[in-house]
Amino acid sequence: MINKKKLNKRQYAYQVIRSRIIDGQYVPGQRIVIDQIAKEVNSSHIPVREAIHQLESEQLIEYKPNIGAVVKGINNQVYIETLEVLAVLEGYATALSAAHIDQSGIDELVRINDQMEQCLKNYELDKIGIYNREFHFSIYDYCPNQFLIANIQEMWQRLDVVRNTGFTFFPKRTPHSIEEHNQIISYFQNGADFSTIENYTRNHKLNTLEAFKQTNEA
């Protein structure tokens, strides 16, 4: 739930619109009605327009002639290109984090990955993506380059619009992903070198990309 007491009107409008895009209440192509949002957040049109401009810069909204602001869709090619970039960024971020992660951080990764495996056994498919995200961002908590992490987070958020349609869930990929997480944990535990961790994590992401391609070619 959004805590509007701690947000100004622009921030509140931003959080309301963004959360509805991410959780699928607003679907690609849907028009954002400024007057309606302004009434909901009890503000003038200006903070809502500012919020929409921010979401436009984050690639979640686009302007269409004679229509106005609409939720931006994402096609297969954009999804593929985004994952390709994420593979590079996340490989580097994970390798950077390795020098800073401590035993408690490693223990947390083990716990999260065990939870992910349990969800697979119980066929709790809706939770697997949540634990997968938690696994990777628990690693990034130890990354000293916050600009890098901010860019990774922004790209994940952009892909959330697609993920929440169930479009990118690959059951056959999940067991392999869990095994690869265990290997990343092992690299942390054994002090593997930077390039080993970077290359392995990059390929971990690219494996997901290949699963996506195979699913959409079927």
UniProtKB/TrEMBL annotation:
<keyword id="KW-0238">DNA-binding</keyword>
<dbReference type="InterPro" id="IPR008920">
    <property type="entry name" value="TF_FadR/GntR_C"/>
</dbReference>
<dbReference type="InterPro" id="IPR000524">
    <property type="entry name" value="Tscrpt_reg_HTH_GntR"/>
</dbReference>
<dbReference type="Pfam" id="PF00392">
    <property type="entry name" value="GntR"/>
</dbReference>
<dbReference type="InterPro" id="IPR036390">
    <property type="entry name" value="WH_DNA-bd_sf"/>
</dbReference>
<dbReference type="InterPro" id="IPR036388">
    <property type="entry name" value="WH-like_DNA-bd_sf"/>
</dbReference>
<protein>
    <submittedName>
        <fullName>GntR family transcriptional regulator</fullName>
    </submittedName>
</protein>
<keyword id="KW-0804">Transcription</keyword>
<dbReference type="Pfam" id="PF07729">
    <property type="entry name" value="FCD"/>
</dbReference>
<dbReference type="GO" id="GO:0003700">
    <property type="term" value="F:DNA-binding transcription factor activity"/>
</dbReference>
<dbReference type="InterPro" id="IPR011711">
    <property type="entry name" value="GntR_C"/>
</dbReference>
<dbReference type="GO" id="GO:0003677">
    <property type="term" value="F:DNA binding"/>
</dbReference>
<feature type="domain" description="HTH gntR-type">
    <location>
        <begin position="7"/>
        <end position="74"/>
    </location>
</feature>
<keyword id="KW-0805">Transcription regulation</keyword>
